[in-house]
Design goal:
By secondary structure, the protein is of the alpha/beta class. The chain contains 15 helices and ten strands. The strands form two sheets. Strands 1, 2, 3, 4, 5 and 6 form a six-stranded parallel β-sheet that branches. β5, α8 and β6 form a beta-alpha-beta unit. About 5% of the residues have low confidence. Bound molecules: zinc ion (ZN). The site of zinc ion (ZN) has 5 residues, from loops.
């Protein structure tokens, strides 16, 4: 009798000890904060050279049109991402290329300077394994990517120059065709019908060095050719499904399925014009252009001048209200591709500081809402870990394992 009673007592003690873990499921927020979250398209470096602007300060989009800083990353549980070296396209001339090359190198230096200045909170990442190591130190993971390889011009040796600066993801084009490839949005239509001869060598060079190739902004033909030529899976760092909203920057389901079949990943974008039809407002755009001319380059504004600019800008925007998509639209795109190709081929690249952001998903502080909704839709913690970072790191790991250059 006594032995049996003791046994019952022990069992109940064990059950009581086990109960909290079994009964109390972790909240979506707890899960979100536990996983390694990366966004694959942060245009934040655009602000690094702004006078008086520090990533360590808490900003708002309303005050300075930014969506990412250290306080908001902490609030939104964002562990890091790919910080883009974006270069606007100019003339395809030797002078244009030299200026773009210098601007892109300067941008890479600004990323390094930001990390060096805030080395207690940020660390540069170069390999797939670096992410977990940096996160374990409680620091933000800073990978670098190139959006628009126009700065490469016709000199493919520059791909290695940027690799050496730490770039691990690279896309050939932006809004316009260049000497490497056709854009999805060039008003003149296709120039190469995909990649140029140089563009094909560019793909081989990225493979040789172990960089992830990014087909966002590229035309469908470029996507097809990159998918075929690349020896490792490619990424769409910030794109959406055209089945949900038809736009040249979005991609059709058949291509998403072929991307997945080759091991690739599509990272969902939140740029309003790629989520819903937003009527053009030429008068407002004209007034904003005039405002920009009055004040000069936005990146150079600070203090009271910035405040005055923002006040005038808000007044113009209030005068011409425009429909705006919401987090529901972003989730609809995300859930569509998840159903189409599964959790191994989908990720997050919301184009922060580059035009992304919708109602309810205004800046990176709102990111836990995505995890909350994914969990509500039935996705598990391990699914979320893949979506939020595991997939892109798998691509980087594979690109680096297959690199043939002794580049490191
Ligand atoms: Zn972009």
């Amino acid at each position: 009798m006594r032995a049996a009673a003791l046994k019952i007592l022990c069992v109940s003690v064990l059950l009581a000890a086990a109960a909290p873990a079994v009964l109390a499921a972790d909240s979506a927020d707890t899960i979100h904060r536990r996983i390694l979250t990366l966004d694959t398209h942060l245009d934040t470096p655009d602000s690094f050279g702004r006078p008086g602007w520090s990533i360590m300060d808490a900003h708002t989009f309303y005050d300075d049109r930014t969506q990412v800083d250290y306080p908001r990353m902490v609030k939104g549980g964002l562990k890091g991402g790919f910080f883009a070296i974006y270069t606007a396209q100019g003339p395809r001339t030797p002078e244009g290329y030299a200026a773009a090359r210098d601007a892109a190198i300067k941008r890479a230096v600004e990323i390094r300077e930001m990390v060096a200045k805030n080395s207690e909170h940020f660390e540069l990442a170069f390999t797939a394994d670096d992410a977990a190591k940096i996160a374990a130190k409680g620091k933000i993971i800073v990978y670098q990517s190139i959006e628009n390889s126009y700065p490469i011009g016709k000199d493919l040796t520059l791909v290695k120059t940027f690799y050496d600066l730490g770039v691990r993801m690279i896309g050939p084009v932006h809004f316009s065709n260049n000497d490497l490839a056709d854009s999805a949005t060039d008003r003149m239509g296709p120039e190469w019908h995909g990649l140029s001869q140089l563009g094909k060598q560019f793909v081989a060079e990225a493979n040789r060095l172990g960089m992830v190739l990014d087909a966002s902004h590229a035309s469908d033909d470029v996507f097809d050719q990159m998918l075929e030529l690349s020896t490792t899976p490619i990424i769409l760092s910030h794109s959406g499904p055209s089945a949900m909203f038809k736009h040249p920057r979005n991609i059709d389901d058949a291509r998403i399925m072929r991307l997945a079949a080759k091991g690739g990943v599509i990272q969902i974008n939140s740029l309003p014009n790629y989520l819903m039809a937003i009527p053009e407002v030429p008068q407002r755009d004209m007034e904003i252009r005039a405002l920009n001319q009055k004040y000069g380059p936005f990146r150079t504004l600070e203090g009271d001048t910035l405040k005055a600019y923002m006040a005038e800008r808000h007044a113009i925007e209030a005068k011409y209200p425009s429909p705006r998509p919401s987090i529901d639209d972003v989730m609809a795109h995300l859930l569509h591709v998840l159903k189409l190709v599964g959790v191994d081929h989908v990720g997050i690249g919301l184009d922060w500081d580059g035009g992304g952001g919708v109602r309810g998903l205004e800046d990176v502080a709102d990111l836990p809402k995505i995890s909350e909704r994914l969990i509500a839709a039935g996705y598990s913690e391990s699914d979320l870990a893949k979506i939020w970072g595991g997939n892109v790191l798998r691509l980087l790991r594979e690109a680096q394992a297959k690199a043939t250059a002794s580049a490191r």
